[in-house]
Write a structure and sequence with these properties.
Length: 318
């Protein structure tokens, strides 16, 4: 039996997500729905914005510390990347490792993965690449046939873990602990908590790209579900909250809205909002505690001079 989702399944899931958002308190909708083709393009644009510091800060941390990160990882390691995308951050890491056993890029999009892997062969010389199409936020298994290796490294850059709930982050870390085994390591990028003066412009840039990214969710729903949501009637808002420290993205109704979905009418009053994304901001200690509950021990940390972002290396056992 095929487990691949059809376009109809995806449309049904999106419709259900919208109905849930309209009927449940908080009006939350999974941030996964932000990433249609256009949403992914807009996210790429966000990573280039002057006010969106995480991507370039993390790339800088890797560039400045590549030799010490590679030394800490050691030899004959199988690198398993969660949400590999273009593998942009992984190629320098794999090339810096003295001897690595292979690379397992994991991505939810089969097309994107196929394209990315075909471009890797020249960049990674003879390194075995074993791509895996999977949704890493659910339980997944590694490919059955893997090259010989002495340890496994989970690689999860980009602070994407911050977009999961605490429970989601915990179960992902636990699942990876099992998959990566006793000799397992985990290298992860986390965005550090900081002043809202820095955080808010990162998620509400003057160029309006993040606003377009957020509102594109409504464009996506109009197209996919054949709706007539008035895009202009929703304003993008980035809000900073503490305890836990996080940025939330909202689409706020600027006037009362009536939405008809599958023949049913729902209302969203002026000032109410769809909550479209949470981006958790951690301290190194707070994240290390969360990881410890999933069995991971913090071994090394690397950060930038302003302590905006951190790259952490964990061991599966003491
Ligand atoms: C993908 N993720 C780590 C981004 C973040 O910073 O939480 C998504 C994003 N949302 C708005 N800007 C960027």
């Amino acid at each position: 039996m095929s487990t691949t989702k059809t376009a109809t399944d995806t449309t049904t899931d999106l419709q259900q997500a919208l109905v849930d958002a309209l009927t449940q308190p908080g009006h939350g909708i999974s941030s996964a729905w932000l990433y249609d083709q256009r949403g992914s393009e807009l996210f790429e644009e966000i990573t280039e914005l002057p006010s969106y510091y995480p991507t370039r800060t993390e790339i800088g941390i890797f560039a400045d510390n590549l030799a010490s990160i590679a030394k800490a990882i050691g030899n004959d390691c199988l690198v398993v990347e969660l949400g590999s995308g273009s593998s942009r951050k992984t190629v320098p890491l794999l090339n810096a490792l003295d001897r690595s056993a292979g690379y397992v890029p994991i991505d939810i999009s089969a097309d994107y993965l196929r394209e990315a892997v075909s471009g890797l062969t020249t960049k990674l010389k003879d390194l075995p690449v074993i791509p895996l199409v999977a949704d890493f936020t659910t339980a997944f298994s590694l490919p059955p046939s893997l090259p010989a290796h002495s340890s496994r490294l989970g690689f999860f850059p980009g602070s994407t873990i911050g977009n999961l709930t605490a429970a989601g982050a915990q179960s992902l870390l636990q699942h990876c602990h099992t998959l990566l085994g006793q000799e397992g390591m985990f290298l992860i990028g986390i965005d550090l908590d900081k002043s809202p003066d820095v955080l808010i412009p990162a998620y509400d840039d003057p160029e309006g790209v993040t606003a377009a990214f957020n509102r594109n969710l409504l464009v996506h729903m109009n197209r996919e579900l054949e709706l007539a949501i008035d895009i202009e009637a929703f304003a993008h808002e980035a809000r900073y909250y503490t305890d836990p420290a996080r940025i939330e993205m909202h689409l706020v109704a600027v006037a009362d809205q009536t939405l008809t979905v599958a023949g049913q009418t729902y209302t969203l009053a002026k000032g109410e909002s769809f909550h479209t994304e949470t981006s958790h901001k951690y301290t190194v200690e707070g994240f290390a505690q969360l990881a410890k509950r999933a069995g991971w021990q913090l071994r090394r940390e690397w950060s930038d001079s302003e302590q905006r972002f951190a790259v952490l290396l964990f061991d599966a056992s003491k």
